[in-house]
Amino acid sequence: MTPGSNDPRPARSRARLLEAATALLRSGGPSAVTVDAVTRAANVARATLYRHFPSGNDLLAAAFRQLIPAAPTPPQEGTLRDRLIALVSAQAELIAEAPVTVTAMSWLALGADMEHLPLSASPEVLSLRERVAEQYAAPFEAIFTSPEAREELGDVDRAQAAALLLGPIVLGKLSTLPEFDYATCVRSAVDGFLATHRRTVSESSNESAGA
């Protein structure tokens, strides 16, 4: 077949490889996603795998990306506090029920400092990084760019906000405590964030005067 042909076989073999990799990732974690295990489960030759994924790390990154759920949509109505609580609560549910996202973040953080993992040069890994960032950044962006948020908070450091609002939730997940109260943690995180980031009356007045 020529490169411009409509041969469906490459797409089918890639799909089988991804299906096998994601199944192994779900059942055994990142260490279970080896080239031998995936090719055996997918009944695909190693040479075929390497045509789709240059390395085992690329395959694992693609599997992680497949399993990360869609980012929650923040509510458009309600006070800023209510909207943030609703969004962080939705994120908490995803973190609690879909630990693969936290695992992916941990894997990316680990690999970035390991010389034998060529993560920075891998399109699959870069795509995974973007997917993880999108999972958390996009919903907050929708809230922090709203007129109410700009009025109450001014210009918000998005990375810092995500860390302060979601950090306690991720820590609760990683702690594996069976009685961890996500709802209480969410409200405390949001209230603490708003208490430390709301602009004072003088700051709002100065900005208005400067305008």
Description:
- This protein is an all-alpha fold.
- The protein has two domains: 9-67, Homeodomain-like (Arc Repressor Mutant, subunit A); 80-210, Orthogonal Bundle (Tetracycline Repressor, domain 2), CATH 1.10.357.
- Helix content is 71%, strand content 0%.
- It contains eleven helices and no strands.
- Helix 4 (56-67) packs parallel to helix 7 (123-144) and helix 5 (80-97) runs antiparallel to helix 7 (123-144).
- The chain is elongated and about 65 Å long.
Which CATH architecture of the largest domain?
Answer: Orthogonal Bundle
CATH topology of the largest domain: Tetracycline Repressor, domain 2
What count of helical segments does DSSP give? Answer: 11
Helicity range of the residues? Answer: over 70%
What layout of secondary structure does this protein have?
Layout: H1 9-28, H2 35-42, H3 46-52, H4 56-67, H5 80-97, H6 100-111, H7 123-144, H8 147-153, H9 158-175, H10 182-197, H11 201-210
Helix pairs in contact: 1-2, 1-4, 4-7, 5-7, 5-9, 5-10, 6-7, 7-9, 9-10
Keywords:
Tetracycline Repressor, domain 2, 2 domains, Arc Repressor Mutant, subunit A, 211 residues, mainly alpha, elongated
Short description:
The chain is built from eleven helices and no strands. With 211 residues, it is an all-alpha fold.
